[in-house]
Design goal:
Length: about 375
Amino acid sequence: MTIILFIIILAILILVHEFGHFIVAKKTGMRVDEFGLGFPPRLFAFKKGETEYSINTIPLGGFVKIFGEDPDDESIFGEDSKRSMVNKPKWAQAITISAGVFFNILFAWILIVIGFMVGLPTPVAEFEEGVVKDANVVIVNVLEESPAFESGLKVGDKLLFLGSENESVQNFSPEEMVSFISSHGEKEISILYKRGELEPAFTSVIPTNDILKNQSAIGITVEEIGIAKFGIFRAVWEGLKTTLGLVLAIIVGLATFVYQLITGTASFSQVAGPVGIVGMVGDAAEFGFIYLLSFTAFISINLAVINSIPFPALDGGRFLFILIETVMRKNIKPVIANTLNLVGFALLILLMVAVTYNDILKLF
């Protein structure tokens, strides 16, 4: 079920992204030859008007074939060359290439707005006092191979009770939780937690001094999180702020990772490929529909930001080509542009294979 859910979410996000390219290309007078979901080999297809719509075997992508997107003699000089992307004004090319990214961000905004209208899990510190209701101390990060990790605790678990020997605390703040754990050295601590819609359950951990200097810890980061619920107008506004905040956070995180790659300090443990995301989808679904909705919005923004990178074969790379052509007032030779995009695509496939291999290693 988790794999099926992952495929459905991925298909929706790709459909949204490619529909952005598709609809803007149509509206700017370009010829769209094919709108495909998934990668070949093809399962089936049908034609409506001049466009062929295909469903393909590999559900990890999608594409829109716009006439003249990869220039050749036919698209530049042929009979229908006026409808070729390469012969359209630069502004039309630019908005068509950018449309997929825009639609993914727009889709994420819509999902977050829906979340705020239904009731979205939100850190208490994000809003003024009293806005966020039913707050709990919630795990937001679990350190791998830590006592908490070994005990089965996961991101999203609500901590309800801590007990050790004859002492216990409940309805505690994050600061009180840290104080309780650090004051019990290497003694066993019982933890009552709630995961999603499941019944509360107990686990036990023994703090260690190997995580923090001079302080016992179990390897978790927590935050006070409750439910924020708004009417439609405020939900739209808060959804926009949250969406833009996530875009900025993902850009900063990606830039940091690229810098670490350049300096040789990056770790692929920070990156998740398709296999890793399948696990995340399962975890999100386990915590409930609203968590799955939030995760889908987060992945949609990730897809938008990654596609914006000025690298050949990505939307950002194609946009960079258009920008260079605009400044130079001269088109890049088709053979150069097509070769760079082909090499870029091959490198992206290699990166996906490497990340997927790393995901598989994490399973063992």
